[in-house]
Design a protein that fits this description.
Number of helices: 10
Helix content: 40-55%
Order of helices and strands: HHHEEEHEEEHEEHHHEEEHH
């Protein structure tokens, strides 16, 4: 049966219409995926900036707590060995204990004297007050001898580096403030030690589960690495430098930029991810943290799967 010319034209127009519909659908699908990726980039940058601001606020709160501790009159009396120094030391120990109970991030608080090679006078950790016979000389640590050189109003913030000797692979930030007399004589210092992993566990609880958190110090040494944490647990191994894995992040470490987007390629058990990095200053410009958030590309495109079908 031969088709008439009109029927042939109808069939041709139908095929042409289906082709146009297919092209329009494909273009709509591609556009929607790009819109999702662009929206994810904006959301990721905003989330990273909010996380950085929360970290900055936490550091400011830690510094304020340290200022309160360092201005307590009990610290001066305990270091000057006044007749009431035993009572003042007991009150200060109670204050340190209360501060540790109120802040899970606080690892220990110590009162250290300037003489006797930086001998600890009071030390309270998560287990309670340390016995007097277990107190140690700390004068060789930077958070002691550098703090003793500060002028009134200044605080010391240490660099965060992983301890190679610590079986728990702790990451500690030391904040220290000198103790001054009324005639501007430095008697010693108070050191507040922050458990960085506990701090970031609290900050990360505010984020969705699929976010991955990166943290590096000002040298680029990765302190929190989701890839290593997942595959190696507490094993330490060699230091991983983030600028070696992602050379474009050198601009952040060198202060040429404050935030950046990057694509993390798929490897091992990790899929391809979109990541946002930003710097968080700690007191001085030379001492900062590199903060990163990553989200798998599969999660970004999950919303377009129904449209794909």
């Amino acid at each position: 049966m031969k088709l008439s010319l009109g029927n042939k034209l109808t069939v041709l127009l139908c095929v042409f219409g289906l082709l146009l519909s297919g092209l329009a659908s494909y273009y709509s699908l591609s556009s929607s995926k790009q819109i999702l990726i662009d929206a994810a980039k904006r959301d990721l940058q905003v989330a990273n900036q909010v996380l950085g601001r929360n970290l900055q606020i936490s550091l400011e709160n830690f510094a304020n707590d340290l200022k309160v501790l360092s201005t307590q009159p009990q610290a001066v009396d305990a270091l000057q060995d006044t007749p009431r120094s035993h009572r003042e030391a007991f009150e200060l120990t109670q204050l340190f204990t209360s501060m540790l109970k109120a802040h899970p991030e606080y690892q220990r608080i110590s009162l250290i004297e300037a003489k006797n090679h930086g001998l600890e006078r009071i030390k309270v950790d998560r287990h309670g007050a340390v016995a007097s016979h277990a107190l140690q000389e700390k004068g060789h640590f930077p958070y002691v001898f550098q703090t003793l050189k500060l002028v009134p109003g200044q605080l010391f913030f240490s660099e965060i580096t992983p301890s190679r000797l610590d079986p728990d692979n702790e990451l500690t930030l030391h904040l220290a403030s000198p103790i001054w007399t009324n005639d501007q004589q430095v008697l010693g210092l108070i050191v507040l030690s922050i458990n960085i992993k506990t701090l970031f566990s609290r900050l990360q609880r505010e984020l969705p589960d699929y976010y991955q958190l990166f943290l590096a110090n000002s040298q680029g040494e990765l302190l929190l690495n989701p890839e290593r944490n997942k595959s190696q647990g507490k094993s330490q191994g060699p230091s991983v430098m983030i600028q070696t894995q992602l050379p474009e992040l050198r601009a952040l470490l060198e202060g040429e930029s404050s935030n950046m987007l990057s694509i993390l390629p798929a490897k091992r058990e990790q899929p391809a991810r979109l990541a946002a990095f930003t710097t968080v200053s700690i007191e001085a410009e030379s001492n900062h943290l590199l903060l990163g958030l990553a989200v798998p590309e599969e999660h970004i495109l999950q919303a377009s799967r129904e449209l794909d079908q």
